[in-house]
Automatic annotation (TrEMBL):
UniProt keywords, alphabetically: Cytoplasm, DNA damage, DNA recombination, DNA repair, DNA-binding, Endonuclease, Hydrolase, Magnesium, Metal-binding, Nuclease
Hydrolase found in the keyword field: yes
Places the protein is found: Cytoplasm
Organism the protein comes from: Chitinophaga rupis
GO molecular function term, any single one: DNA binding
Family named by the database record: Belongs to the RuvC family.
Gene3D superfamilies per the UniProt record, alphabetical: Ribonuclease H-like superfamily/Ribonuclease H (3.30.420.10)
Biological process according to GO: DNA recombination; DNA repair
Protein name: Crossover junction endodeoxyribonuclease RuvC
Catalytic machinery residues: D12, E72, D145
Documented EC number(s): 3.1.21.10
Quaternary structure and interacting proteins, as annotated: Homodimer which binds Holliday junction (HJ) DNA. The HJ becomes 2-fold symmetrical on binding to RuvC with unstacked arms; it has a different conformation from HJ DNA in complex with RuvA. In the full resolvosome a probable DNA-RuvA(4)-RuvB(12)-RuvC(2) complex forms which resolves the HJ.
Amino acid sequence: MANKSKIILGIDPGTLVMGYGLIQVQGKNASLIKMDVLKLSNRKDHYERLQLIHSCINELILLHKPDCCAIEAPFFGKNVQSMLKLGRAQGVAIATAMQAGLTVAEYSPKKVKQSITGNGNADKEQVWQMLQRILTFSERPDYLDATDALAVAVCHHFQESSPLAGLPKAKGWEQFLQQHPHRIVSK
């Protein structure tokens, strides 16, 4: 039986630079379709930037027809105003994807880095270098926000292809043992 092809859109939300990456998954193998950034002028009104984010994501969806969307969760910093703006950008991205009928998954920056490099504290350079190996590409983008978005898409692929994907999550040992009686070994 042939493996169905799937396209994943990854987004690294930002109010000045929004990264995006698209991968195609065939079975367990992923390949790069596109990665880039949307650069937003800080001279533009914040609401105008949100509209541009919406338009860009909508255009990517219409052009590449992804099956799902993965987005990086905001990193919680100390500047509340920046966090609010970033949350709005993320909300617009999520709403645009959902309006197009895509499922959306959200991953923390630490989870993405852990998934790609094995180290949740990896820097952007390490993530980019590992993605080059995983997806076999050589170009280095001008903005590593593009590779961050690509990493979110690859992280989603890894999560979906995990042997544990789709299993209900246990809420404690008792529930885990009830769901997995074959894991109990008597001595």
